[in-house]
Specification:
Helix 9 packs antiparallel against helix 12. The chain has 14 helices and no strands. The longest helix has 27 residues. It is elongated, with a radius of gyration of 23 Å. The chain is mainly alpha-helical.
Length: about 300
């Protein structure tokens, strides 16, 4: 049969003629149907988890303090921002209760989204050896990267809560702190959608990594990370744009729960959930449509 059959369609016809089921055979280097692709990604869930856990566990292996840096690094950052905005520049905090906690939450929560935006552009290039060597759904790469980022960010969240608790004027724990869990989960799902989009864009345009780093800075200032941006906007149209910014909403929700001890408004939840669904579903479909190119163009 090998000498007679020259194409995939002929292979399928030959198998069907022989009474065999070819439905689970797919040519290498082509995009499988979406249901099949989703199943393939699910079947690689153990690999994704193992790869994420291993890389998280070994990312500080060369340092003397090892993974203690997962907690120490955000604590040092929090101490730095407390020193700047709580001690050296206290007047910047005029009008904002507990400004050190305001900045600490903003900076540390924004970090994960910034990493997804700028780092996603290099994901496919950085994993080219694995793409060349193995046949697997390439969506596993941005998923593993986001899971790894979530593992690191989880330590950052713990350090963030400890920092705002012990740093004057203090934000003592309360039941509303539990809302940080769903807020954090929504942020990670949104980051996954961003990673899908930036991974494909960065695959076609490697220079986009630098462009996205610049965009990340604009997003930081437009999300009120280190100052209450809504107080400096007088134009109603611009204010509405900022209010629809999902990163601004996520950070504001975390501040409301952790500092004020209140449940974030329903409008914030709805806006963040809508953005998360759009970015996650849209990003996955956008990435999936380029599946057949990732391995072929990296050879």
């Amino acid at each position: 049969m090998a000498n007679e059959v020259r194409s995939a369609s002929q292979v399928v016809e030959a198998l069907e003629h022989a009474g065999l089921d070819p439905s689970k055979l797919f040519p290498i280097g082509v995009r499988p149907p979406l249901p099949v692709y989703l199943r393939q990604v699910w079947e690689r869930r153990r690999f994704i988890w193992y790869d994420s856990r291993q890389r998280t566990a070994t990312q500080n292996a060369r340092n003397l303090l090892g993974n203690a840096w997962l907690i120490l690094r955000p604590l040092i950052d929090a101490a730095f921002y407390f020193l700047i905005f709580g001690v050296l520049l206290p007047r910047v905090a005029d009008g904002v209760d507990n400004f050190p906690a305001f900045v600490i939450i903003g900076v540390l929560m924004f970090r994960a989204t910034s990493a997804a935006l700028a780092g996603g552009a290099n994901l496919m290039q950085n994993n080219r050896s694995m793409i060349r060597a193995f046949n697997f759904p390439r969506a596993s790469i941005p998923i593993a990267s986001t899971v790894r980022s979530a593992m690191t960010a989880a330590f950052t969240m713990v350090a963030m809560c400890a920092a705002i608790w012990i740093a004057p004027p203090f934000a003592p724990p309360n039941l509303m702190w539990m809302l940080l869990v769903p807020i954090f989960a929504l942020q990670m799902l949104m980051n996954l959608g961003i990673a899908f989009i930036t991974a494909r864009i960065g695959f076609h345009f490697p220079d986009m990594g630098n462009v996205l780093s610049v965009l990340s800075r604009f997003l930081m200032y437009g999300s009120g990370v280190i100052f209450p941006i809504e107080r400096f906007i007088n134009h109603d149209g611009i204010r509405e744009i900022v209010m629809l910014n999902p990163v601004f909403r996520i950070i504001d929700m975390a501040r409301t729960a952790l500092i004020d001890g209140r449940v974030p408004g329903l409008d914030s939840w709805l806006i963040v959930i809508a953005w998360t669904l759009v970015l996650l579903v849209g990003g996955f479909l956008y990435f999936w449509r380029g599946e057949e190119m990732y391995g072929r163009e990296l050879r």
